[in-house]
Amino acid sequence: MNDGYAVRAEALEKRYGEKRALDGFDLAVREGTVHGLLGPNGAGKTTAVRILSTLIRLDGGRARVAGLDVARQAREVRARIGLTGQYAAVDEVLTGRQNLEMFGRLFHLGGKRARLRAVELLEQFDLTDAADRGVGKYSGGMRRRLDLAASMILAPAVLFLDEPTTGLDPRSRGEVWESVRALVAGGTTVLLTTQYLEEADKLASRITVIDQGRAIADDTPDGLKNLVGGDRVEVVVAERADIPRAVKVVARVSDGEPETDEDGLRVHAPVTDRVNALTEVARTLQDEGVRVEDIGLRRPSLDDVFLRLTGHRTDVSQPKEAAA
Amino acid sequence: MSAVDTSTVDTSAVDLTGPGSHGRLYWLLADCANIVRRGLTHYQRQPVNIAWQLGFPILSVLLYGYVFGSAMKVPGGGDYKDFLMPGMFVMTMAFGFINTATVVVYDSTKGVIDRFRSMPMASSAVVAGRGVTDLVVACAELGIMMLTALAMGWRPDGGWGFLGAFGLLLWLRFALIWIGVWLGLLVPNPEAAGGLFAVAFPLTMISSIFVAPQLMPDWLGWVAAWNPISSTAAAARELFGTPVGGGDSWVEQHALLMAGVWPVVLTVIFLPLAVRRFQKLSR
């Protein structure tokens, strides 16, 4: 019904006074996939999600979600989407069950179906034990899972996740990732915004990089990483004399040319099979009696991608975007 | 750490298809009822909140009734309790806007309002439901305050007039809902909403709640007499059958009329402001 695209945005414009939050932003998300929207604070990620989820009006361009026009068919769009924003938008006073039942009734399921759906979702998001506790006593990860569950009440065709793991500890982050994977396995299309390349890499099959309100790259995670050279294994030796031996060892696991940095006693090279490469290098160096100060994997960061794509670094100290 | 059973997510045994052929008005009312239900469930889960909200008025009743009571004068004579208690009821209503603002600012900063707005529900029900909740809670608060007053020896003497007084008090509270919603969408965070008390306190003191305006310096007495909540207080005293401490100025002589008019004025000003602020969310 919509050429296989769950989300299609063309030349989106959004202005706040002089500032162009979105400046001709394009996006195409295939049905049944997780699509990452990657960019630093203030790049326009949240603005894009808020337009696509009908929360704010667009100033120019066109956008269709689940085959419907977000400007002209907002109400119909709302019946087909779920939204989880940067905050866990759940009622902290109510229990988890009361939250889901309330949202279910507000999704017009009626009392009985809302109750049944709540039971089902509590089960699926592993919240049954905490169902009748006040959300105020939930951990960050539980709260986010409840938030996800609330977004899933109508089993929406498209789910918007706006930085779903910002501010979560690694364990909670893992839990949220699990949930997202499970949702996609069930057929939901997910648009995920994130500042973390790792998160987009783990979840998304395609990534759009956004900067200053425009899409500046659209590729698979591998494609983006190739752009910045992918992962590198990195060895720092204790003595300058060991550098040639280290180069030889590193070259054996690398699919590229090892580079040396004489001042820092550093040898590094691109690798694909990261963990094996690292253990291989560590073991061989030890066998050969090379004294190593430090060894590790350096992964391309969002900073690296940005530097390559835009020529400027991401500025994490930038204020939150206007619409956040 | 496999928190979620992958095989079952998104395949629901519950029928999630559309809600049938109810009209828009039906869903507006149904959505509104659900928002009210949420608000009242808050009080059910945290009954101590009512106590917090009534703490100040009740403390004031005790303080002014017992500690300062003997020193307080009512111009033209009369029992200070008859003057004080209706004033306390008015103050309870007046402080209510802080409560409205606090809930609204909390919902808007925590993303709850955004969630509502991203759902296929009537977004006006978010505000309307808040208003109805506040009125229901106001009834409960007035009930508790009146029982407290009766326990302290307050004896209204106006027969069914007390229903009229009750109505005028709620009418004032209704008008203040819009100030609360407007402020709730205006202030940046819940902490700032706490500061509203510092504004509300002097605004309620410079009125005829505790002290008759004639006993104040001329200019202050004039301000106090024209304070909208003074009219409601004077009208309530009249309807309770204990019209003590009334003044001679036009606004004090027409307390009943003005107790009806002031809330209309406030609503005409602040309802559009609140609605505009709410619509501004989608800019």
What does this structure look like?
- The complex is a heterodimer of chains A (324) and B (283).
- Chain A is α/β, with parallel strands linked by helices and 324 residues long.
- In chain A, 35% of the residues lie in helices and 26% in strands.
- Chain A has helices at 45-52, 74-78, 96-106, 111-124, 140-151, 170-185, 197-203, 221-228, 243-253, 274-287, 302-310; strands at 5-16, 19-30, 34-38, 60-65, 68-69, 81-84, 158-162, 189-194, 206-211, 214-219, 232-237, 259-261, 266-270, 292-298.
- The model of chain A is unreliable at 315-324 (pLDDT under 50).
- Chain B contains twelve helices and no strands.
- The chains are: A alpha/beta (324), B mainly alpha (283).
Q: What's the helical proportion of residues of chain A?
A: 25-40%
* SSE class of chain B: mainly alpha
Give me the count of strands of chain B: 0
Global geometry of chain B: elongated
| Helical residue percent band of chain B | 55-70%
Strand content of chain B: under 5%
Order of helices and strands of chain A: EEEHEEHEHHHEHEHEEHEHEEHEH
Keywords:
heterodimer, A: 324 residues, alpha/beta, six-stranded mixed beta sheet, 26% strand, globular, disordered C terminus, B: 283 residues, mainly alpha, elongated, ATP-binding (chain A), nucleotide-binding (chain A)
List the helices and strands and how they pair.
The complex is a heterodimer of chains A (324) and B (283).
Chain A: E1 5-16, E2 19-30, E3 34-38, H1 45-52, E4 60-65, E5 68-69, H2 74-78, E6 81-84, H3 96-106, H4 111-124, H5 140-151, E7 158-162, H6 170-185, E8 189-194, H7 197-203, E9 206-211, E10 214-219, H8 221-228, E11 232-237, H9 243-253, E12 259-261, E13 266-270, H10 274-287, E14 292-298, H11 302-310
Helix pairs in contact in A: 3-4, 5-6, 9-10
Chain B: H1 24-45, H2 48-67, H3 80-109, H4 112-117, H5 124-151, H6 161-186, H7 190-194, H8 196-205, H9 218-226, H10 228-239, H11 250-253, H12 255-280
